[in-house]
Amino acid sequence: MLHRKRKIPQINSSSMADIAFLLLIFFLITSSFDSKTGIYRKMNVPEIENALKKRMDIQDRNLLVFTITADNQILYQDEVVSLEKIRPLSMVFIDNPDNAGFLPEKTVVAVPEAGEVAVTSQHVISLKFDRKADYQTYLSVLSELIAAYNDLRREAAHKLLHRSFERLTGEQKEAMRTIYPYRISETELKEDEK
Amino acid sequence: MSKFRQFTTREVPSLNTASLPDLVFSTLFFFMILTTMRTVSLQTQFDIPAVTELQKLEEKSHITYVMVGYKPGSSDTSGMLIQLNSDLITLDEIPARLENSDSQIAVLKIDKNIPVGLVQDIKQQLRQAGILTIHYSARKSPKNLLNFKN
Questions:
Q1: Torsion angle of alpha carbons A26, A29, A31, A33, nearest 10°?
Q2: What is the pTM of this model?
């Protein structure tokens, strides 16, 4: 009876903190906050673009042109506009809410999930820029144009499906994209256009 | 008197550090989740532009990185450097370098003061190499503003 009930020794966890600190310091040093945000753009295959360039007979009412000059100014109809103006201007142009004669023509298209919707399927927003303009200016204008489309899609989601755009299903989001598809064309200013 | 003497042997209680590992682990997980590992080492220095409308990069692999910036560590902004993945290259080399790559998307990290002409030239080269989707890296701009130089 000399042997009493043996006690299980406790695991000494005082060094646990040291191990965790080592890991923490490793991650602090090796990691870098790499930004993952930005703007997506899709380009056309060269052959397709060359074929399309040959028939540049877009009607005036379907075309909205913004020009970025070498000294980073944004021109609309030969007049300087501020960056804030681009979004509202483009939104009215893309949507043509009153079906005005000087804005893009509307055609009725059957969109899955949303029914029959009048869409300005022929409109083009043309962004012309000088080679010497800053990248920041170019990207700011591009961002505003994309924001105009995204705002319209959000509005349409509320109006047609009574839901916020984020809460739509995949097919419904695709429908909103069909109603307001990105139609932005980017071209460099040629020498004679300056 | 002896009754009072008992109090003189009072000890300072030791600090209980049993929950310290938990605290450290929670900070560790915070950093592990928030950070993304950079896959290519930087050989250029650039300040990406800030814009209002942002989309998150969804692709995790098959990405081609193109960086355009200046020599790191110097304030000299005369010479521009183009970096494709991990190497410094010239503009014309891009299609040849991408010949055997299977990437579908190019992430452009370009300094905000670079002229757009160069960005267009890079885009043309990428298109020749068969990359048609582009993601311009940008930061969130605090307000809808543009710093005009005039």
A1: 150
A2: 0.76
